[in-house]
Amino acid sequence: AFLGAGGATAVYQSAPMGEILLKLIDIAGAIVPLRIVKHWERGVYLFCGKHRGTVGPGLKLVLPGLCEVIRVSVVPEVYGTPLQSITLRDGTTLTFSASVTVIVEDAAKAYLELGHWSETVVEIAAAVLSEGLADADPERFDPARGKRDRLLAEQRDAINAEIGRYGLCATALRLNNFVKGARTVRLLLDRAVMGQAPVPPV
User: Fold this and answer.
1) How many whole angstroms separate alpha carbon 2 and alpha carbon 14?
2) pLDDT tens digits, 23-56
3) 51 within 8 A of 44, measured Cβ to Cβ
């Protein structure tokens, strides 16, 4: 602290030593060929552009122009699918969206075969769910006696069958919005507003 203009006391809060040390390491890493793989990451080791293995957390030596370490986060990520409307086997309409929790089990596969996998996970999950839920017995959407939970577990397994080849794993799946028969109700209301006779449901 020091006495500023007008007698006001100015106080400067020093940055924690940990933050200063990390900044110094980052600066040194830009000069010295070292890379830090944090404890929530795995490093994909490339030598002359070829994959030579996966390394764990720690300080890694790299040679600019010859080898590099690509850091991949293995922290679980939650991805949301867009709102979808599908027709069920009994002719009713289901409008839903879902969220899927995904972890990276094989950093090398995830990086080398996909690179940025967020969009791929969302597209695969949306496609699997729309197809799987449309083919399911409508009675399984009843939350009683755990029918819906077992249905979602099967859909999670189906998603894993698709994303597992990329070193990814879906650990959880949940429905965020779940409205059954919404489109039929909206159609009847629209026809009534336009002065048309509602079409009786089949």
Assistant:
1) 14
2) 776 666 566 677 888 999 999 988 888 888 888 8
3) yes
